Every structure is written in C-alpha cells, then in structure tokens.
Amino acid sequence: MDSKNVIKVSHCQKDIFCFFVPKECPECGMSIRGCRLEEAPISIPNPFSNGHKTPCCFLVAPAEENTHREFDGGTDLHTGITDTNGVVFNYTKTGVRRDQRGWERCISVPLVQPDMFNLLNQWDQYLHKFSGAELWDPAYKKNRDSSDQATFFQSSTVQFWFDEETHNCYNYSLMFINCILATQRRNPLTKDQFTQSFVLPRIKRACKYTTLCKDISKKQFFIVERLMRESEKDRGEA
Q1: Which tens digit of pLDDT belongs to each residue from 107-129?
Q2: d(C-alpha 211, C-alpha 68), whole Å
Q3: Closest CA to 188 of 175, 205, 201
Q4: In a 10 Å sphere around its CB, with 0-12 CB exposed, 13-18 middle and 19+ buried, how is residue 87 labelled?
Q5: Whether the predicted pLDDT of 148 surpasses 70
Q6: Cα Dmax for the chain
Q7: Half-sphere exposure of 165 toward its Cβ, with a 13 Å CA cutoff?
Q8: Over 50: is that where the pLDDT of 31 sits?
Q9: CA–CA distance from 197 to each of 14, 72, 188 (Å)?
Q10: Rounded to an integer, what distance in angstroms lies between the CA atom of residue 39 and that of residue 214?
C-alpha cells in the first residue's frame, strides 16, 4: 500500500492528500488546473527504501512475525546492516544471516559518506570479520559455562560487554556501528543516543506515512483543514 507515491494538493483552504492529482477539487468541485503556485501539487517523500539497494546502511524492518509487514507503531521490528552489495547482515536466534532478499521495504540510515573511500573499501571486510566472531555463534552461546553469563568482544581499540538480556539484532547492529566509529577515532553511541537521533524520528515518519496511505485508500482522498495545520505550525505543534 505505502509503495505508492502520496501527493498533497492545497485548494479551498484545505490540504488534500491522494495518490494522483485530481482534475477537480474533491471538496468544492472546482477545477484544480491553473491554481496558484502555493497550491501546486507536492510529492510527499516516501520514508521507505529497498534495503538491498542501499549499501552500508543500518536497516529497520517489521519482524517476520508481523504478518502484514507494516510499520504500525505496535509491532516488533528487526534490524540489520548492509554490505557494499546490499546483502543484509542481521542477527537472529540461529546466528548471523546474510539476506539477499526480504528487505525490499524498510527504513534505512546511511552510515558512510560517499567520500569516505578508505572506509568503503574496508567495509565488507569489517562486517564479515565482526559477524564471524564467536559472540554471534549460537553454539558458542549454548556451550558457555552457566556461571559465565556475559562476555567481552574486543577489537584493537574498543571493548563492549554483552549479556543474555541484550544479545539481540539491535545490539548486534549498534555494536558494529560503534566498532566502525572506533576505527574513525570517534566516540561510541549509546543505545538511547542512536535510537533518539537516528531511528525513532524515521520510524515515526514511516508510521505516519503508513496511516496516511490507509486513510487515502479508504476514500481516495484524505482532507484536512489547511488553516488549522498552519496555525498549529505557528504554535510549534505541527
């Protein structure tokens, strides 16, 4: 549903959201052609992307248990990291998977700038080495001494502590990101910092976009008062 492009048309003091530009305003019936510049149709950015076409990114997608695979704000999510070819490395109960499909609709957070050539050249090597560590081997977890409920992962520059309660896909992804930051001599990010700055805002946009698409599909249009929206923006509430 939300793979469609959403368009916003402003007319008769209303914002009209739809999947196509109507010839006539669905509210007043007047022709939309020849409208003022400020009323021209605007394409609403789609917050989703094909994870297999976004290399060197952190990805978020609905968990496989989510039958409809939708971002609705109430379902479990799954995370992963892409290599330079769009293969998604993600940690599951069976270990690290390398998915070449299944992440065609997700949220992506770019992790490497285009001009960071040295890091780009070493990205796959870093990701493969990190994912091959014993820490992510289910057999290693099962064979540990029962009194050893935690373990260190150590690189040349940084150490992280893991235990059973935090040994999941999100920690796998964030731990790799922090290892990369260490190679760049940058400070690591806490889970809260990364979530609040990079993940949560994108998830909120995705949930709103999904809801908007559902509303449009019901009646072809979703209409709100333009003056109300502008007054809310003026008050800093929009």
Answers
A1: 999 999 999 999 999 999 999 99
A2: 14
A3: 175
A4: buried
A5: no
A6: 75
A7: 0
A8: yes
A9: 32, 20, 14
A10: 24
